[in-house]
Amino acid sequence: WLKGLCSSSFCRPCIPGKQSPNLSYKMEMEAEVPRGALPGQVFQVQTAQGLVPVQVPAGVRPGEKVRFPVPMTTAAEPVLLGRVGAQAGHQGPAQRYRHDPKSVQLDHLPLLQGIPIEQAEMKVEQIHKGGELCALYPAFPAQRRCRDAFWALPFLAVAICVVAAAAYYAQEVSRQISQDVHAADGSTTNKIGYVASAGAVGGAVSLVTALFYVLLAKAAPGCVVWTSLIFGPTLSIIVGLGMLAVNTLAGLILILVGALALSCVFCCYRPFIPFMIKLVETVATVIKSNPMMILVALLCSMAGIAWTLACGVAGAGVYFKYKDGIKDASQGEQYALYFASAFIFLWGAQVASNVAHVTYCGVFGRWYYKVEPHTALRKSLLVALTTSFGSICFGSLLVAAVRAVEAVIRRARAQAAEDGNMVSCILLLVLQCVVQCIGDILEYFSEWAYVQCAIRGVSFIDAARITYALMTCSNVEFILQDLLVNSVVSLGAFLCGFMGGGAGAAAGYAFASEDHSTAIAGAIIGFLAGLICGGSAASIISSGTKSILACWAEDPEPLRQTHPEIHYEFESRILSRLVDL
Fold first, then answer.
1. Rounded to whole angstroms, what are the CA distances from 377 to 67, 498, 550?
2. Is the CB of residue 380 less than 8 Å from the CB of residue 454?
3. SS3 at position 556
4. Rounded average pLDDT per 10-residue block, the chain, 581 residues
């Protein structure tokens, strides 16, 4: 029952004298007494050493924590051993849960079992290459070379062209907008200024909210994790109740979905929550010691917003000038133009977001290895903007290309639906799902690869190889299955968006109290700005979690020394999965 749930805190042992390469000692561990357990009864606890029987002491009630000794063994090598037990009171043979990627064999990798032998051997060969790269490029070298610099050149050329086009067409776009939405009293210019100011206020308030959210995650991580999990289902139920009077069927569906999601939180996610609470608290501690990471989030968010405006103005200017030619173009030419527009916009947005991500990863990596703690943020940002900028541009290009293809397919599907061509609509829907899955996988794995770019300064392809080798040989996949960090990040982004929208509405009403449309527009712009700025700040938690796991996959010793409770949580979750295998 307590598998992967009950370990809460650990005490590091004090061993006098010189340690031998294989010395046994006992360490205290905490466990929560399960529901229904009475004094004198015995329950099982899954630890890194296997299942351990624990007797409930007299006077202790369910829900309270008890301490018990666990026999441990120190090892001279950083590759740790775990004991896997299948039954109470029985321990199986020693089993290694991590292996050297330079020499690992196929039968040592449970994640590669069950696939065709040819594919498995190819993957093992890639793991060996990744292990060699890992040894060749140590963490945080004294000097770094510029990697993937070639890909920075086309991005900078595209950025210059977009900014120049936006500046060239700005007057024309402003004139067209004034003709279309000019107010009767001639106050269009003032209204646009009021809305823009309200959006700026909303973005500023969202950043302050993000800072308080991080401080709350440090002070009350349990509250943050639980709220992030139950917020979505609860909101769905509330919205469903409100819709019953308008659309009974839709309201009932929302209530049912919310109830199912809420039951899933308490029945399925509950064993993972204590682990997530500890991890969020650790990440929030690092953010609190480097609060200027919020400023990086602001700068990258402003860069993303500026890129959006530049692409919007440039695109609108091109459309206004060549409107007749675009309308007369063939469908294939229109789709090509749509792909180019989506690709350019997504590429710039990805670069702005990933610069922040690489900076965060560098800060957490330096915290993990205790390297340059006083200049961690400055040097991490410098790496992201110089030696690793080419790698960021290359990885962002890959994701942007796939997402742009997805956007074109979505547009073609919408056109097929308008034409009543249901066969094409279904085929395009299937194709869209496939492309979307490819984009999700590529975007997810690139986030992990950027950790190695920040830590080692390697190219994007080498970072991907190193990441795959380390993750596979340390069985980190079994830990990722228990992570709920996306819920925490989503709650932070929505909270920042909500506060930004409220602040934008208030600012819009203050600027033009007689015009309610200004307040509504300010609320919308403030909400979007809050989602962008606050989401970037809240994503620090996700970047920190990935960085800690990636560093631990290579060398667990630093985390064992500073945060043994997190280290042994990682161990116990991997070993518990190996028991099932």
1. 39, 29, 19
2. yes
3. coil
4. 32 37 56 78 70 82 80 44 32 59 83 79 89 90 90 94 90 69 50 67 76 78 82 85 84 88 82 80 84 84 84 85 82 89 92 93 93 88 94 95 94 88 90 93 92 94 92 83 72 79 80 70 76 74 90 89 85 75 57
